[in-house]
Amino acid sequence: MNQSARSVLQKKVSSQESGDAVEFLARHTGLSKGVLKEAMAKGAVWLKRGRGAEKRLRRARSELKAGDLVFCYYDPEVLALTCPEPSLVADETRFSIWYKPAGLLSEGTRFGDHCAVKRFVEKHARPTRAVHLVHQLDRDTAGLMLFAHDSAAAAAFTSLFRSRAVAMRCRAEVTGDLGTALGETGALTSTVDGKQVETRFAVVGFDLDQGATTVDVESQVGRTPEIRHQLSDAGFPVIGDLDHGRANKGADGLRLLAWHLAFVDPLSGERREFSVAPEELSFR
C-alpha cells in the first residue's frame, strides 16, 4: 500500500501467519506499525472470523487465527480528519440523548468511525453498556440523537421511529420570504412510504438583508431529509442544502438544527421530551 493513497486490503490468515494483527498488517500492507495502529484505533481495520459477523479490529496486539479474514480500508485523508465532539443531554439508563454537532457522521464507514457520534457514545458507555443506533441525522445537520443501550430497547425505539411516532422539531434558515408566501404558520404535506405526512411550520423571523426566513418545523416522520425535501418543494430550500435549490451554498454550512424530540417512551409508557436551545447553538 502507498502511505499517501487510498487503498483496500483483504487477506486471509494462513496457519503460518497467526499472531499479532499489527505484525500481519505491516507485512501485507507495507505501512508502518505506527500508521496501522492509528488506522486500527480509528476503525479502519475489520475482522471476520468463521461464521461471525465482521467487526472492527482496534487492538494492535489482537491475536489472529488461521482462517481469519482481515480487511484494511486505508485512506490518509479520512484518518487525518478532525471533528467536533458531541455532548450528553440526558442519560436514561436504557437509552441516552446526545447532541450531535454539524460535521459528525451518525455512524462510521468502512474507512473509519472516529468522526462518528456513535463512536463517541461507545467510548462514554464502556464497558458496561451496548450502544445501538436507532435513527440518524445527516452529517451536516446538527441536533439531538437517541441511542439505545440494550437489544430490547433498541428494538422498541427502532419501531417507534419507523412508525413515525417521534415528533422532531427543527429550526431552519431558508431562502426567501416564507411567511409572506405561505403565512406565519401552516403545514406542508408530502407522501412518505405511500402515506401522506404533514410537517407544521411557524415563522420565527425574516432577515430582509439576507433574504432568508428562520422557521421552526415539526415533523412526525423524525427524519430531517423529509423536512428538507418538503421545504424545497415548497420553494424555500434550507440554506446550505446543496441537494436542493440553485446557488444555495451557505457560508456556514447547512442551516438546519433538530433541537427537540418528543415521544411516548416504549419502555415506560411515559411522555418524554428532550430539547436544546436553538438560539444558543446557532445550527453548529
What does this structure look like?
The chain is α+β, with helices and mostly antiparallel strands. The protein has two domains: 7-79, Structural Genomics Hypothetical 15.5 Kd Protein In mrcA-pckA Intergenic Region, Chain A, CATH 3.10.290; 81-284, Pseudouridine synthase (2-Layer Sandwich). Helix content is 22%, strand content 33%. The chain has helices at residues 21-29, 33-41, 76-79, 117-125, 151-162, 178-182, 224-233, 278-281, and strands at residues 7-12, 19-20, 45-48, 55-56, 63-64, 69-74, 87-91, 95-100, 132-133, 142-148, 167-175, 185-192, 195-207, 212-219, 256-264, 271-275. Strands 7, 8, 9, 10, 11, 12, 13, 14, 15 and 16 form a ten-stranded mixed beta sheet that branches. Strand 3 (45-48) and strand 4 form a beta hairpin. The two termini are 37 Å apart. The mean pLDDT is 90.
Name the helix and strand elements from N-terminus to C-terminus, one letter apiece.
EEHHEEEEHEEHEEHEHEEEHEEH
* CATH level 1 name of the largest domain: Alpha Beta
Let me know the number of strands: 16
The Rg value, from CA coordinates, equals 22 Å
CATH architecture of the largest domain: 2-Layer Sandwich
- Tell me roughly what share of residues is in helical segments: 10-25%
The coarse overall form would be: elongated
- Residue ranges: pLDDT <50 for 5 or more in a row? none
User: For the residues shown, what is the average pLDDT?
Assistant: 90
- Distance N terminus to C terminus? 37 Å
Query: In DSSP terms, counting alpha (H) and pi (I) runs of 4 or more, how many helices?
Result: 8
Largest sheet at a glance? 10 strands, mixed
Given the helix and strand composition, which structural class is it?
alpha+beta
Determine the CATH superfamily of the largest domain.
Pseudouridine synthase
Number of domains: 2
| Strand residue content | 25-35%
Per CATH, what is the topology of the largest domain? Answer: Pseudouridine synthase
